[in-house]
Specification:
By secondary structure, this protein is an alpha+beta fold. The chain is built from four helices and three strands. Bound molecules: zinc ion.
Length: 102
């Protein structure tokens, strides 16, 4: 049970695809609601936060999707707030084309 009451609610169910659509509540960055569609078995395991941890309930989900199910944060908003570190220039790489030997 989390500290904050869950804003999540199931808004859709596709019995043919075995997926549920979850309204994930308000995103703390843009204050807009969001939705995630996930396998219904994963949602049942997660049990709206009362069951298994999301990474075990839904290992196939992307990190962004799981994050959004947990706390409503859109993957795009999260990426904007916490951009990944720039890739380091690989100055040490060996250039075999220039005659370097492996
Ligand atoms: Zn957002």
């Amino acid at each position: 049970m989390g500290i904050f009451p869950s804003q999540r609610k199931v808004t859709g169910y596709d019995p043919l695809a075995f997926t549920v659509t979850i309204n994930t509540g308000r995103c703390m960055f843009c204050s807009k609601d969001g939705e995630v569609t996930m396998p219904s078995h994963a949602w049942e395991l997660y049990a709206d936060g009362e069951g298994q941890q999301i990474q075990y309930a839904w290992p196939e989900g992307s990190m962004g999707e799981r994050e959004q199910v947990m706390n409503g944060t859109h993957p795009a908003c999260f990426a904007e707030m916490f951009p990944p570190p720039p890739e380091e220039e690989d100055t040490q790489s060996v250039n075999y084309a220039n005659g370097d030997t492996p």
